[in-house]
Write a structure and sequence with these properties.
By secondary structure, this protein is an alpha/beta fold. The chain has two domains: about 100 residues, 60s Ribosomal Protein L30, Chain: A; about 160 residues, SPOUT methyltransferase, trefoil knot domain (Alpha/beta knot). About 35% of the residues lie in helices and about 20% in strands. It has nine helices and twelve strands. The strands form two sheets. The protein has a seven-stranded parallel beta sheet, sandwiched between helices. Strands 1-4-3-5-2 form a five-stranded mixed beta sheet. The radius of gyration is 21 Å and the shape is elongated.
Amino acid sequence: MITISSLSNSKIKDLIRLKKAGERRVRGLILIDGAREIEMAKKAGLEIVELFYCPSLIKKAAGRFFELKSEQIIEVTEPVFSKICYKEKPDGFLAVAKPSMSNLDTLKLSKNPLVVVLEAVEKPGNLGAIIRTAVAVGADALIINDNQTDIYNPNVIRASEGLVFVKPVVIASVEETVEWLKKQKIKSLAAATIGSKNYTEVNFKKAAAIILGSEANGLSQKWLKAANELIKIPMQEGIDSLNVSVSAAVIAYEVLRQRIKIDKS
């Protein structure tokens, strides 16, 4: 193992450049901040290229190096780690890894699948929060149309608490998604202010896909025309939208409520 104490070190400069989405895309690498998140990524099969750690910040499992080879592990000082990490309260572990992407053809579905489809969602924090909700309710996968953010943006990883590595996330066009849902016999239920039914009036007990658009523009005409049904979340006058992560949670938990009722009956 080597120790780096200088911010001008070339390896540290390369690492800082990876904070930019374009650099991550070109180099095919991502940053994972935190021991828990690194562990989840490793269990999901991602290849950890390098591990940077700061002994003075590590409170638990000081010898926890994720079964990596010594030449992959680099010790850094606290000032250096504070420059390369993302968390406000870092735990002293940061990894460089190779991302792994899912696709529609390889998705494995349960007998009664639930899929969350997001169109043009821009904010990494919202995407991360929706991934956490999807895992919590047992959704099979997330599909992203008209992708506006890096799936492995450090803020997505942070907001999802590392669950982005656990749940399959697929990037696909609206057309590809519509065709795939039809092939899988999954009903598409799109959330829109012009929806004809409140979300609580919809039957989610069978295979379903929740379709959600951006807060600014809602769903595209493609989805408004292609969806099997348009649904809405009732709101008081003067309010025309919710944060997309809130909308996702509200509808997803209605799905879970209905399906738990089935299991108990």
